[in-house]
Amino acid sequence: MSDGARYTYVGSWCAAGAETSWNGTWRISGEKGSAHWDGDHDPELASDHPPLDRPASPYSGIAGALQVFVEALRTGVAPMGEIHENLMSLAMVEAAVESADTGVAVTLADVFTRGRELPPTSTAASG
User: Fold this and answer.
1) Is a pLDDT exceeding 50 seen at residue 2?
2) Distance spanning both ends of the chain, measured CA to CA
3) Distance from C-alpha of 4 to C-alpha of 57, rounded to nearest angstrom
4) The sheet that has 44-46: what strands, in order across it?
5) How far apart are CA 72 and CA 68, in angstroms?
6) CB count, 10 Å around CB of 106?
7) Can you give 50-98 as a three-state secondary structure string?
8) How many Å apart are CA 25 and CA 20, to the nearest integer?
9) pTM higher than the cut 0.70
């Protein structure tokens, strides 16, 4: 930076050992085969049946996600995957992290009860 300030970032997307994309690694199996996606490359199909031809989504990748985000800001229409659809997943992660930190079982009800007790202006980032 021009004023001599330095910025340093250290981070890791994976634990020691086999590397996993921040998107995760997914495997889906069904009666006619399975598909594997590593989050970074095109999915791979393991099946005796050929894949169906489907048009690419106009909202794929980072560019598509940003397009959906901007459209939501401009129109006020909630995008697919917005927070309300993922509330249970976020609560599950919160309960798992708290349980790992404290060594005590934490239920989803515990997480939601505490959430209802927060003042309306409180956020997880400020707590």
Assistant:
1) yes
2) 31
3) 45
4) 26-30, 33-37, 44-46
5) 6
6) 19
7) CCCCCCCCCCCHHHHHHHHHHHHHHHCCCCCCCHHHHHHHHHHHHHHHH
8) 7
9) no
